[in-house]
């Protein structure tokens, strides 16, 4: 990692946060340019998928601009959206700096495997969701990385190791997939509320929470027997690890600051999270370490380490703006006015996400394009809420089935398991059962 990468990406994140506070699209577009320069400078250090998606996004944008299909305001919006989504991930990822400072996070599997075996699956799924609401992809690094170390330290191998990986990592991934349904820090919520300011996280939450409960119950039914076998090999803790209370207080402070920002400034919850998480993290690090230079260096390394994921988010945002800009404005005209038209749109949106993710198109790319249609539907008098609910549900399912998605790739790397096995063999049956249940739930919403 070069000094340019370590400096450019953090500067771009800070610039986007300033632009967000000032509501300046031009400043945000400049941040987007800095992000792209940083990604291009990284070059071959980016993973193949990240690099390919970025090249495709830039090539499509350049071609459409050359053909006169994109206007200057649309190009500015594409750059600004790229900055917002890259900074969204970069700023929330700062919370990962706290992991090495808390023993409870290093021993989290011993903590989670305590208690009655029957509760292990829902406990893992819900705790994973809660941690991911703050750490984002840092949660996958935390839980997957610490499990790999735990199994190595204890000499757990063969079929027993595979059982641990199947039980613990799949519940971790499914917990992470609940974030779009319930968390204000979800990128899916950020995309939808950015495209349609009339939507808010609080409007989506009751429906998302209901879908989340259904998914947890389904996973519990399918996985509890395997978790009982894992529980026979756990290590009991005599007491909670040091720092547990301090960590809980810190997380409560983060969410309190987010709530205050939303109440006093009118910022969306996702934007408030982008400001609160790095601010509280940096203040805590400064309080502990008393060295601004060391903290600045660690922070820049942490942000730059997420360059692959940020490049994927930025490229997806660019594709979403450019492709939706050239789709005819009347493409969906009149469809929603037909009997059952809104349900057809909602169901199609839900199903497109996991289906396209299964063939390698990551969820954020698909959602970015879908979100571009929402203003048109609202202009025709369609209530966007049911369709938005369908999209966050589809996004949640897609996170489990995307073999090239960051979450599955992280799980595959730490568990040393094929990502195809994770996406399809471990999650395929779960998603096939969940889809009809969630479509029925969607039909009830639209009655």
Automatic annotation (TrEMBL):
The keyword Cytoplasm does not apply. Keywords: Membrane, Transmembrane, Transmembrane helix. The keyword Chaperone does not apply. It comes from the Bacteria. The chain crosses the membrane at residues 12-42, 48-66, 124-147, 168-192, 198-222, 243-264, 270-289, 310-329, 335-353, 360-379, 385-411, 423-446. This is Citrate transporter. It comes from Marinobacter albus.
